[in-house]
């Protein structure tokens, strides 16, 4: 069974945990833009060198560089039968580019799963994670700002995918196994 899925949700909703579990359950790679950036920078690819210049300057990597890296990753053999994207697309322009990338292979996104979570619960999770990881810069104000930015930037994407009938909202709170089962039952 092929699966082409996008996983979205606010910071702290458990996307990374669920991406790994879904990847195993569905037999498709979990593809994170952060991982793609790190692999290209470490491998000193041309795109990696270009991305590193932006990252070192503390700037966002431009869409055209991100899109090229994602296109390259999706062309790899392990993604031929499907994939789970985490962290891409982030803008409506990236949605359009992903559509073009997949259409060239006569493919399309099948499901967009949005993990939802109560804001106060997510803030508590992120504060606990910041303390555990010694991230003193992650104060409650900073975390709440990141959540506001996420909401503002993600709303247009959820609207696009909802209008296509692809958006599935899943409660991201609870036991990890239960959340995984909720997601799987929603996309099967």
From TrEMBL:
A Gene Ontology BP annotation from the UniProt entry: AMP salvage
PROSITE patterns found in the cross-reference section: ADENYLATE_KINASE
Keywords linked to the UniProt accession: ATP-binding, Cytoplasm, Kinase, Nucleotide biosynthesis, Nucleotide-binding, Transferase
PANTHER family: NUCLEOTIDE KINASE (PTHR23359)
Subunit structure: Monomer.
Keyword Nucleotide-binding included in the entry's annotation: yes
Entry EC no(s): 2.7.4.3
Chemical reaction(s) catalysed: AMP + ATP = 2 ADP
InterPro entries, per the entry: Adenylat/UMP-CMP_kin, Adenylat_kinase_CS, P-loop_NTPase
Protein known as: Adenylate kinase
Keyword field contains Kinase: yes
Cellular component, GO annotation: cytoplasm
Enzyme class: transferase
Natural source organism: Brevibacterium sediminis
Lineage of the organism: Bacteria, Bacillati, Actinomycetota, Actinomycetes, Micrococcales
Protein's job: Catalyzes the reversible transfer of the terminal phosphate group between ATP and AMP. Plays an important role in cellular energy homeostasis and in adenine nucleotide metabolism.
Domain-related comment: Consists of three domains, a large central CORE domain and two small peripheral domains, NMPbind and LID, which undergo movements during catalysis. The LID domain closes over the site of phosphoryl transfer upon ATP binding. Assembling and dissambling the active center during each catalytic cycle provides an effective means to prevent ATP hydrolysis.
Record-stated family: Belongs to the adenylate kinase family.
Residues reported in the UniProt entry to bind ATP: 12-17, 129, 174
Domain of life from the UniProt record: Bacteria
Location within or outside the cell: Cytoplasm
Residues binding AMP, per UniProt: 33, 38, 59-61, 87-90, 94, 135, 146
GO molecular function: AMP kinase activity; ATP binding
């Amino acid at each position: 069974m092929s699966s082409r899925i996008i996983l979205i949700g606010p910071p702290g909703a458990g996307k990374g945990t669920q991406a790994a579990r879904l990847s195993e359950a569905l037999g498709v790679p979990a593809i994170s833009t952060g991982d793609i950036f790190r692999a290209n920078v470490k491998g000193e690819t041309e795109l990696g060198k270009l991305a590193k210049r932006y990252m070192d300057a503390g700037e966002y990597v431009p869409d055209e560089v991100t899109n090229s890296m994602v296109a390259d990753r999706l062309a790899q053999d392990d993604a031929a039968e499907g994939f789970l994207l985490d962290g891409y697309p982030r803008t409506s322009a990236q949605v359009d580019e992903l559509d073009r990338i997949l259409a060239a292979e006569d493919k399309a996104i099948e499901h967009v799963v949005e993990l939802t979570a109560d804001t106060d619960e997510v803030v508590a999770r992120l504060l606990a994670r910041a303390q555990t990881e010694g991230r003193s810069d992650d104060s409650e104000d900073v975390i709440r700002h990141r959540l506001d930015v996420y909401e503002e930037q993600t709303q247009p994407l959820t609207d696009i995918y909802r209008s296509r009938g692809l958006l599935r909202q899943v409660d991201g709170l609870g036991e990890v196994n239960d959340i995984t089962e909720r997601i799987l039952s929603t996309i099967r």
